Amino acid sequence: MHDSICCIPDCKAKPYAPAGTRSVCKDHFLNFLTWRRRRGPQMFHKYAAMTMTERDTIAAEWIKTIRMDEVPAATKSHP
Ligand SMILES: [Zn+2]
User: Fold this and answer.
1) Which domain holds residue 39?
2) How far is the C-alpha of 20 from the C-alpha of 57, rounded, in Å?
3) What is the distance in A from the centroid of ligand 1 to the CA of 11?
4) Tens of pLDDT, residues 1-19
5) 4 falls within a domain
6) Which residue ranges in the chain fall short of pLDDT 50?
């Protein structure tokens, strides 16, 4: 973990856990967990057996699915 902020664009939260070779904040990590669970137990086990570099592919796939309206309210600035 060498990142100082979450690797998700526009998220400035502190890194909480790794997603591949990068780091994400707690909210995004939980979002990533949910996304993997939704893809079924096979994906969950497959991911667990992967190396960090292989996980990058999965994380990249997930990042593409993140929409700005799904960003947790706490990380958004008030208008
Ligand atoms: Zn984040």
Assistant:
1) 17-71
2) 8
3) 5
4) 467 999 998 899 999 999 9
5) no
6) 1
